[in-house]
Amino acid sequence: MNIDGHIVLPDRVMPGRVVFDTSITDVRPLLHNVPDRYILPGFIDAHVHGGGGADTMDGPLAIRDMAMFHMAQGTTTLLPTTMTAQWSDITETLYAVAEIMRSGIPGGPGIPGAHLEGPFISPHRRGAQPAHTLPPAPARVSAVIRTGAVRLVTLAPEVEHADTAIQQFVQAGIRVSIGHTQADHEQAERAICRICGAGGVAGGTHLFNAMPPVMARAPGPATALMCSDDAYAEMIFDTHHVHPALFRLAHRVMGRRLVFVTDAMRATGMGDGPSSLGGQDVMVRDGVARLHDGTLAGSVLTLDQALRNAIQAGASLPQAAALVSTHAAGWLGLHDRGAIMPGRRADMVVLGPDLMVREVWVAGRRSA
Ligand SMILES: [Zn+2]
Predict the structure, then answer these.
(1) Taking every annotated instance into account, which residue ranges of this chain make up the domain Amidohydrolase-related (predicted)?
(2) Can you give the pTM of this predicted structure?
């Protein structure tokens, strides 16, 4: 099979043809009759709770529904993300994700694991996470590792048992992301060193959100993440969670280490109105989801919108495509995808000249 269009490569946009079966077999330039559309690597979302009315915590059917919703917006790989909740609800959800990893979602996106966001976070920086935080005691960490589902964990490095938890997660090949944290700059730096020193991959969960701010004499975890040579960091770039100027700053400093995520909740794609997150009432107004006290409650972002926001903020199309795909593939160790390149999985998104999603291909199969 093949698709012609303007192919978004890591460093440029090339008019050409992508030839593929389940993987991409050839990428070649075309001089004439190139359709007015863009071909991008399929989007990868490392942090997504829900969408289309469904939430990861509702069980296997809801995980399928929310995955199919996001696939229609160009996401070809995602990590269903848990909320801080009753311990049994969290482990049950992880087993549900493990089951889906085994069976796959027919005609759906790739699910290479779950993102465990809470309960191992700071009770003082919960954001919209319910008040069921727990310290990462070794037995609890072993229990979530045993589910086989966790690919990425968000952890506050200052909480009790965090150091041993980091060792356990890294030994299990799980990426450790610093987030929902009160850590100061030094604590965050030490945690990054500890993760990388143990042979792991370090990151930060939604940079600038649910962590102390950057101040002149207290640079905080955001600065530790940005200035690290190794750490990745997520960003929710719906332009409400992070100001465009801070996106530009982080992008300039971090390059391929900055990863766009949605942190999308159930209400995504459902328009304005009441919804819920982790059993709490949420109101969505003008595309912003808030708890009753005004706390931002996840987002209603999709990655195709994040891509358009990045371009609006000054990024080039290859840069924006990398932010929603290539960088996440690097962060998650998914080296078989995240670029339009021979040998990679044929995960592709076709955008019209208006940058709206027209077609989605997963492993060479037209899926939306
Ligand atoms: Zn989240």
Answers:
(1) 38-365
(2) 0.97
